[in-house]
Amino acid sequence: MTIExxxxxxxxxxxxxxxxxxxxxRIAKKIIKEIYNxxxxxxxxxxxxxxxxxxxxxxxxxxxYGHYRIAYLIKDKxxxxxxxxxxxxxxxxRYLNTKEA
Length: 101
Known about the structure:
The chain is of the alpha+beta class. It has helices at residues 7-21, 25-40, 93-96, and strands at 2-5, 50-51, 60-65, 68-76, 79-87. It has a single domain, classed as YaeB-like fold (2-Layer Sandwich), CATH 3.30.2310. The chain is built from three helices and five strands. The radius of gyration is 13 Å and the shape is globular.
């Protein structure tokens, strides 16, 4: 199973990195690396995340890492698309209830 990252997901990771870097660059790099490593489990276990209810019929799932929710879509039997990485306090409804991706 291959793992693809949308451009938006990459931007979310950059924003997380930049925000944490304001306090500690070493920790920021560590967190981003750990999020990336957590996502790698999807290559073997793509259905590990819980199903995120949405209105467009896509099987969007959420994988948890610390305070973050990693939203992804099982595209087909061979690939997973990471849609975004969101802080747990963020209302992700407006980001995930779209027919794009």
